[in-house]
Design a protein that fits this description.
The structure holds 4 protein chains of 4 kinds. Chain C is of the alpha/beta class. Helix content of chain C is 37%, strand content 25%. Chain C starts with a strand and ends with a helix. By secondary structure, chain D is α+β, with helices and mostly antiparallel strands. Chain D folds into 3 domains: 2-32 and 164-238 and 480-540, 3-Layer(aba) Sandwich (D-Maltodextrin-Binding Protein, domain 2); 36-142, D-Maltodextrin-Binding Protein, domain 2 (3-Layer(aba) Sandwich); 242-476, Dipeptide-binding Protein, domain 3. In chain D, 30% of the residues lie in helices and 20% in strands. Chain D is globular. The chains are: A mainly alpha, B mainly alpha, C alpha/beta, D alpha+beta. Chains in contact: A-B, A-C, A-D, B-C, B-D, C-D.
């Protein structure tokens, strides 16, 4: 799993304000995501139930792109284009929920360990650092091997292994905020933990968390595809990663069935890139000017 | 004091790794002996015997104690699949992984840092836009897919699998050439993804330093622009970048698993995949402990290295 | 004689914004010129333009003649040869202007090697009165004063005829500042250097420079012999600048009215605070009377800020007591919260003391909300804001902090304190980060609040002038202990402790 | 000349006493002969190390003769003492029984009265005495081995009696064997045999296409199709030893009769099981899921073992008939409810196995048509094992590879194979327990007249078919491909429609004949190498040029 720190500037503590160009890329990314979301929402409504039922499809297997199925067919004769549309929902859903889970855990741990000192913070920091260095994918693989197979497991495996970078970032931001004189002023005014966290820390952490979540979705989608590729996905769902798994399982490469191999991978790249660009643009927007 | 703390922290992390490994793989419902003997003529008595042989018939706490004490002696248990000590199995697969990961990391670090420095120094130039764009795109590419794609595109130019051919002449040069030939695609795959990340890390790290006042000092002294960069900016910017490179070592491990799987590179990643399809829990556990342990140790090294490179950090 | 440096019609724009507007200035060899101005007046831009070190986004017109050569039109190669050899710069904030990962000796030697100048970095280190082995140190291993000395040594490395010093002592303590200034004065005199010194602090320039130029909003408004300019400022801005630096002992600068002997409001008894092994506050006794203004002065690191925090209950004392209004202050719970309503904090940097996301009305009302004070929030806030002299309040309430000037921000902070109707104000360097022209207004405001509301204040400052200006009583803190306290006149005019005398000696005299 | 074979499965061990995986035992067969062998042509028993055998009249004592002249690969003669040593090692050392222990459990003792004679006494008459698939190891090597458990058998070259000698093994990469010049049937017609490890059959198929390997098996139907018409490649569609079944939980019980698991009670009714079987369209599965590369399932023994294979007669045959199945379910007392369903069932299969993933879709639809909503769960191998062992399934996919002698596959369905009272120690396949079946099983075990035994075995299969604890779905074809430009012919077993790899013997490899003048397609490889070199050269040149350019222009840039 990729750390979101690289594409964002968080771990380096800096922010890359790309100016107009980055914003424009962000807008393009957002447009791509809007289209993807639309496809994801409409696909279940528009695709006839029979079209993706292997027992009912009538087209031949491994048909190259042509009239009727403009992205060709897979090993069972299903239309790759329809599979792609159907898979959009799963990939986005897993990416979003896993990212929300990861960022939620990360934010909680980050604020707690940043705000409170003492043993709790020490322990949380230790655990965070521990999970931060662990190869997240290895851990996610281990988790999805031992848990029952399914979408929930994938989400859990990704969510539980990719929170530490958020926690680190939120903790750093919490510490920065808490070192600010206005927090001291709030304390001097008599504000307690709830006041300081609720009025000062949380509001200034939220924008960064938002950015982080956007980038986390990107990395979660890649992670999902990797787990699915390794055969750890939910076999009853169509996702882009699962399609690539099928492509490999059924010999798309020796068949030279590029139409079954290219689209899911490209879709992943485009959507992940879109999330990344949106994340970077958001980052530039939310970061207060120096 | 601080040094002791570092080592203590690393030791604690290693213990946590061990505990994690055990519970993760013992939480599983499932009888490894059954999967081990599937499709073979077996009797109940033989199964019981195997169970005893692998110590699976004892209570969980006792299993953990045995596991932990033997772990301290470097004994990771016996692989269900290979009927051999896990440690041996892992050890013999270490070489190819080190070769692949080492080559890829060296190239990725060198290339990534170089590109990152150039892009940041000429920020918003064409070079910067192109490299950053390419890196962001590569960052979005699933490693395995890139591998499959490369394999499809290059066709017959490179071998599709493994580390060497079986019929290569035994002399060193032929063997080395053969290994190098096999190494091309896997390392290109791994480099592409890892390098992108390093480039982005280095770029933002240097951008961070770009407006540092000491660079103005250096310019005021009359230093040439590239000397300012080489002698002043990069030595400062590379420190956090190196730390991040080490911190992202997990990424390389993850990349190695998928890359080795796609190219049948006979290293730890492939072993991981094999253990996964078993699943061979003791082997998985051993691999988790070893890779996580390696990452922990790498981080300790990075810490120490940072202490040596950066005078501001006092290690001792 | 040709001037060493001559600026002709120098104008610098950043985009549409003009930061330096048609500046003409000449400096003869061996001459020392001080360039004064508030933040944003364009003085640093002038300094940087001398070696063409402005960022690319700056567009420069006019001539910058260094020894008759125009820096603005030189080839890069020629420019590099001129840099440091003809003129060098002592940058402000030496911590960041030195490469943190290179030994300072190497950094001093670097320009010498580059320009092929004979010499020895070690000798330079010695010249700036540092031990020779400090050459092997890294910047972070040196104190602020030592780093500044390194910067000076570096500036002298290639034997330039002109040294530009940009706020060379700003971050330094009074005592250290005096030492560094003395060093610079000595070296400039000994080596017959031209010196262009830039500072916001007139007293610093008065100490060092024969001539003085004053900048205001990018333009040069006054130029002349230092003494004359200070004695008879012709431009109102110069007048404001000179007025802002009170002269200790000058009754005109003493604004505090004599107050009757008050009864005690806050008493600190034998207070000890430890940071790990170091003892930051070491057995302090201090009393503040009702409506009394007490100044706590001392160098940085003397423990004065820690003392203030501990009084506020923001930090737990290791031992000792704080008694407020006859009752010991609780260390936690409701009682502490109630105490905090009575005692309010005003911080040094108003821009960071306000949450940039909170509107002024929220910032001021924060205390009301924390304490759940009943009543019409809006009218309470309006009253407090107007009391802090932001009138009419409606103009400011919906603004965000960055839309206000520094002085206005500080008033908002004060309003946020006033809204709770406190009885004691603890102000930590309340004017240190404000421009000279604003600082007088804030001082006046604090005094007016005392007069009108009977508000007592504990002013923490390194600035003896401020203490003279405002305080009824002065306490001098040194290494965690209060070494002397008494009425302002007693302490500042007839000091009894050596340390107080040293502090007073270090204050630059206009 | 080298024969390069792709293997996809792991090698677990080179120690024949420990090697369990099919791939390892197959290589074991090349290294060590068994006491007896099966012919390539029709899989009948033929000479192995022993060339004569004779049971005593009470069938309890078997005498095998090891003829003179056979040699180990190191030149030592092969004697009866080696055979006795091997069996006795397994009798005395439990670890040595790991892989092949089941063959010797019924042995009383094994002796070698002289160098030529082996005498085996069994506790009860054993019908499989000529199907002892136990590699015989050289006594002079193995008697020095102290612990079987830790012995990797990696003293290269490994002394053996088979047609090939193991010379190198690099874990996860390859295994190299050389032709055994001392092999008693004569040395193989080529020099070396290399097994190259592949991560998945996809990669293996690609390598075959490129000529990197010469022989690949276990192809998926699509991969097999992809090789159609490929120059230099010949495909071999063979009858396989495997079958795939759909298990129907018949109300699982332990050996002591306690119910176990949570199978749907409706399935205890044989009429329900029959109805389910009747609703499954086996032809469609073969056509759509196996892409035609399989035969429709019937009995427990696949048609490749023609003698033992059973086909239902016209009246026994259960034809695909959803209407009849619906009627049968109505009659059995499971009418459709208001929502049109009768009762729900779970179907469990293995995730990542293409067959399960696809066939479950078809079954979902078929069951839907008889009012049974299916909840399909595809899980990991281990979880599937767990579910089938604990009987926590209604329907489940399973599959077995069968041996020439049907005893083992038949034994799986006897009552005694069910787990003990604690739910452990079971090796049953489908929790079948049927008095008639068990009686027949005991009969065939002591029936030494092969004709009669075949009859009994067929009766058993008929009974199994009738009671349907599992529906045999299909016998999958073994899909293989080889470089016919490198190797002209391979020996298949059986001769007609047989397999090259995964035989009951070593004929496939041993009998391979190199093509006249094999041209190794090495050309492209050098192109790749040259290309790599060129890329590096260009890179170096670019770096040099840039460095120079920078030095030249740096003076005027900032």
């Amino acid at each position: 799993m990729r750390g979101v720190g690289a594409v964002g500037g968080f771990l380096a503590g800096r922010v890359d304000r790309g100016g107009f160009l980055a914003q424009r890329a962000g807008v393009a990314g957002a447009a791509v995501l809007a289209v993807a979301a639309l496809i994801a929402l409409l696909a279940p409504l528009l695709i006839p139930a029979d079209a993706l039922d292997v027992t009912r499809v009538t087209d031949g297997a491994w048909q190259p792109p042509g009239p009727g199925h403009w992205l060709g067919t897979d090993h069972t004769g299903r239309s790759v284009a329809l599979l792609m549309a159907q898979g959009t929902g799963t990939s986005l859903f897993v990416g979003l929920t896993a990212a929300v889970l990861a960022v939620g855990i990360g934010t909680l741990v980050g604020i707690l360990s940043g705000h409170f000192g003492g043993l709790l913070a020490g322990a949380l920091l230790r655990v965070t650092d521990f999970f931060l260095v662990l190869p997240a994918l290895v851990l996610a693989i281990a988790l999805s091997t031992v848990l029952p197979r399914g979408l929930g497991t994938i989400i859990l495996a990704i969510g539980l292994t990719s929170w530490p970078s958020t926690a680190r970032m939120v903790r750093a931001q919490t510490l920065t905020i808490e070192a600010r004189p206005f927090v001291e002023r709030a304390r001097a005014l008599g504000g307690g933990h709830t006041h300081v966290i609720g009025r000062h820390v949380l509001p200034s952490v939220v924008p960064l968390v938002l950015v982080n979540a956007t980038l986390a979705v990107a990395s979660a989608i890649v992670a999902e595809s990797t787990l699915a590729f390794l055969g750890l996905g939910d076999p009853t769902r169509i996702s882009w990663g699962a399609m690539l798994h099928q492509a490999q399982l059924h010999g798309a490469v020796p068949q030279r069935a590029w139409w079954f191999l290219l689209p899911p991978g490209l879709a992943i790249v485009v959507v992940v890139l879109a999330f990344t660009l949106v994340g970077r643009a958001l980052e530039a927007v939310v970061t207060p000017k120096r | 004091m601080r040094l002791a703390g570092r080592f203590g922290g690393a030791a604690l992390s290693l213990v946590m790794v061990a505990v994690l490994g055990f519970f993760l793989f013992r939480v599983v419902p499932g009888d490894p002996v059954v999967s081990m003997t599937r499709g073979r003529p077996t009797t109940a008595a033989m199964q019981a015997e195997l169970r005893a042989q692998f110590g699976l018939d004892r209570p969980l706490p006792e299993q953990f104690w045995n596991y932990f004490t033997s772990l301290l002696q470097g004994d990771l248990g016996t692989s269900f699949t290979f009927r051999r000590p896990v440690a041996d199995v892992i050890l013999e697969r270490l070489g190819p992984t080190l070769l692949l990961v080492g080559t890829a990391t060296l190239i990725a670090v060198g290339l990534g840092l170089w590109l990152g420095v150039r892009a940041a120094w000429r920020r918003d130039s064409g070079f910067d836009r192109v490299t950053t764009g390419v890196s962001l795109t590569l960052w979005a590419v699933p490693t395995f897919w890139l591998g499959m794609l490369l394999m499809m595109v290059t066709g017959d130019l490179f071998p599709s699998r493994g580390m060497r051919d079986t019929d290569t002449a035994p002399d060193f040069v032929s063997q080395a050439l053969d290994v190098g030939h096999h190494l091309v695609l896997p390392s290109v795959t791994l480099v592409a993804v890892v390098c992108a990340e390093y480039m982005l890390v280095m770029r933002s790290s240097l951008l961070e330093e770009m407006h540092a006042p000491y660079l103005t000092t250096a310019r005021a002294k009359g230093l040439r622009d590239d000397v300012v960069r080489r002698r002043h900016a990069v030595p400062n910017a590379v420190l956090p970048a190196i730390t991040l490179v080490f911190l992202r070592f997990g990424l390389v491990v993850a990349g190695a698993i998928t890359t080795e799987t796609v190219f049948s590179w006979p290293g730890l990643g492939l072993l991981f995949y094999d253990a996964l399809t078993g699943p061979d829990y003791l082997l998985l556990q051993g691999l988790l402990v070893v890779t996580a342990g390696a990452v922990v140790v790498m981080n300790l090294l990075a810490d120490l290295l940072h202490g040596v490179l950066d005078p501001r950090v006092k290690v001792v | 004689m040709n001037p060493l440096l001559e600026l002709k019609n120098l104008t610098v724009h950043y985009g549409p914004k003009c930061v330096v507007n048609d500046v003409n200035l000449a400096l003869a060899p061996g001459q020392t010129l001080g360039l004064a101005g508030e933040s944003g007046s364009g003085k640093s831009t002038v300094a940087m333009s001398v070696l063409r070190l402005l960022p690319k986004s700056a567009s420069v017109t006019g001539e910058i003649l260094l020894d008759g050569d125009d820096v603005a039109t030189m080839s890069w190669g020629r420019l590099r040869a001129v840099r440091w050899a003809a003129a060098s710069i002592v940058f402000q904030g030496a911590m960041h202007s030195l490469n943190p990962v290179q030994r300072v000796g190497d950094q001093i030697a670097e320009p010498m090697r580059l320009h092929g100048v004979e010499g020895n970095a070690l000798d330079l280190v010695e010249q700036v009165e540092l031990p020779r082995d400090k050459a092997r140190a890294y910047p972070h291993e040196l104190s602020g004063g030592q780093r500044q000395r390194v910067m000076i040594a570096m500036a002298l490395a290639c034997g330039p005829r002109l040294v530009v010093a940009d706020e060379p002592t700003t971050a330094l303590d009074v005592v250290v500042q005096a030492q560094v200034l003395a060093l610079m004065t000595r070296l400039v005199r000994e080596q017959d250097l031209g010196l262009l010194m830039i500072s916001h602090d007139l007293s610093v320039l008065a100490e060092t420079c024969d001539d003085l130029a004053v900048m205001h909003r990018g333009a040069l408004v006054e130029r002349g012999r230092t003494r004359e300019v200070i004695a008879n400022p012709r431009h109102p801005h110069t007048a404001a600048l000179t007025a802002a630096f009170p002269v200790i002992g000058d009754p005109a600068h003493r604004w505090a009215e004599p107050a009757p002997e008050p009864e005690p409001l806050l008493q600190v008894r034998d207070l000890v605070v430890d940071y790990g092994r170091t003892r930051a506050v070491d057995g302090v006794d201090l009393t503040i009377g009702r409506g009394e203004i007490v100044a706590l002065v001392g160098q940085s690191g003397s423990g004065k800020t820690t003392l203030a925090r501990t009084i506020m209950g923001l930090r737990k004392p290791s031992s000792g007591r704080v008694i407020f209004d006859g009752a010991e202050v609780a260390r936690n719970g409701k009682a502490l919260k109630a105490f905090r309503r009575q005692v309010q904090l005003v911080l040094q940097d108003p821009s960071s003391a306000l949450n940039p996301r909170h509107r002024i009305v929220d910032a001021v009302a924060e205390g009301l909300r924390v304490h759940g004070i009943p009543g019409d929030e809006e009218s309470l806030v309006t009253a407090a804001v107007e009391r802090a002299e932001l009138r009419p309040a409606s103009l400011y309430l919906q603004a965000l902090p960055h839309e206000l000037s520094g002085g206005q921000q500080q008033r908002v902070v004060i309003a946020g304190a006033l809204v709770l109707e406190p009885r004691l104000l603890v102000a930590d360097e309340p004017v240190a980060s404000l421009d000279a022209s604003v600082r007088g207004e804030i001082v006046a405001l604090l005094l007016r609040l005392r007069r009108e509301l009977g508000l007592a204040s504990l002013i923490i400052t390194h600035d003896l002038g401020l203490a003279w200006q405002i305080a009824d009583r002065v306490a001098v803190m040194h290494q965690g202990k209060i070494v002397e306290q008494g009425s302002a006149e007693e302490v500042l005019l007839t000091p009894s402790h050596d340390y107080t005398r040293a502090l007073l000696r270090a204050v630059p005299q206009v | 000349m080298i024969l390069k074979v792709a293997i996809v499965q792991q090698i677990d061990s080179m120690n024949p006493f420990l090697a369990v995986f099919q791939s390892s035992t197959e290589i074991g067969r090349l290294m060590y002969d068994y006491l007896t062998a099966y012919t390539a042509a029709d899989q009948t028993v033929t000479e192995g190390l022993a060339n004569k055998w004779e049971p005593s009249p009470d069938k309890l004592t078997w005498t095998f003769t090891v003829p003179e002249g056979k040699k180990w690969s190191d030149g030592e003669p092969i004697t009866a003492r080696d055979v006795a040593f091997t069996y006795n090692l397994m009798l005395s050392d439990s670890v040595a029984r790991t892989a092949n222990g089941s063959f010797v459990t019924n042995f009383q003792d094994v002796t070698a009265p002289d160098d030529r004679t082996v005498v085996i006494r069994t506790k009860t008459p054993q019908v499989t005495m000529l199907a002892l698939d136990v590699p015989i190891v050289p006594k002079h090597v193995w008697e020095k081995v102290s612990g079987i458990k830790d012995y990797a058998n990696d003293q290269m070259p490994v002394v053996g009696s088979g047609p090939f000698v193991l010379t190198e093994h690099v874990a996860g990469q390859f295994i190299k064997l050389k032709a055994n010049k001392n092999y008693w049937r004569g040395a193989a017609k080529f020099d070396e045999l290399h097994f190259v490890y592949f991560q998945n059959s996809d990669a293996a198929v690609q390598a075959l296409g490129k000529g990197e390997v010469d022989l690949v098996n276990r192809m998926a139907p699509a991969q097999f199709d992809s090789l159609d018409g490929k120059a230099g490649v010949t495909r071999n569609k063979a009858q396989g030893r495997r079958f795939t079944e759909l298990m129907i939980n018949p109300g699982a019980q332990t050996r002591t009769g306690e119910p176990i698991g949570d199978g749907n009670p409706a399935l205890k009714d044989v009429r329900v099981r029959r109805a389910i079987a009747q609703a499954v369209d086996l032809d469609a599965l073969v056509q759509r899921v196996n892409l035609g590369y399989a035969e429709k399932g019937s009995g427990l023994v696949p048609p490749v073992f023609g003698k033992w294979h059973w086909q239902p007669t016209e009246q026994e045959q259960r034809r695909f008939d959803p209407a009849a199945a619906n009627a049968a379910l109505d009659a059995a007392g499971f009418p459709r409810k208001a929502d049109g369903t009768r009762f729900p069932l779970r179907l469990i299969g293995r995730a990542g196995r293409a067959y399960d993933e696809q066939a479950s879709e078809y079954l979902k639809r078929s069951m839907g048509e008889i009012g049974i909503p299916l909840d399909v769960r595809l899980v990991s191998d281990n979880q599937l094992n767990e579910a089938t062992t604990a009987a926590t399934y209604d329907l489940a996919f399973s599959g077995w590879a069968t041996n020439i002698d049907p005893d083992f596959i038949l034994s799986l369905h006897t009552c005694a194979q069910r787990p003990g009272a604690d739910g452990k120690g079971g090796t049953t396949d489908a929790y079948f327990c049927d008095e008639t079946y068990d009686k027949l099983y005991a009969q065939q075990l002591s029936e030494f007249d092969e004709g009669k035994r075949v009859e009994i075995v067929k009766q058993m299969q008929a009974r199994f078919y009738d009671q349907v604890p599992a529906v045999i779905l299909s016998y999958e074809n073994a899909l293989e491909g080889y470089r016919s430009d490198h190797f002209a012919t391979f020996t298949t077993q059986p001769a007609q429609g047989g397999v090259i790899m995964a035989q009951n013997g070593m004929w496939g490899y041993y009998g391979a004949e190199p093509a006249g003048r094999a041209v190794q397609a090495q050309g492209s490889r050098w192109v790749g190498l040259a290309l790599g070199g060129a890329v590096i050269a260009v890179l170096v040149a670019v770096v040099v040029v840039m460095a120079r350019r920078r030095n030249a222009t740096a003076g005027e840039r900032e």
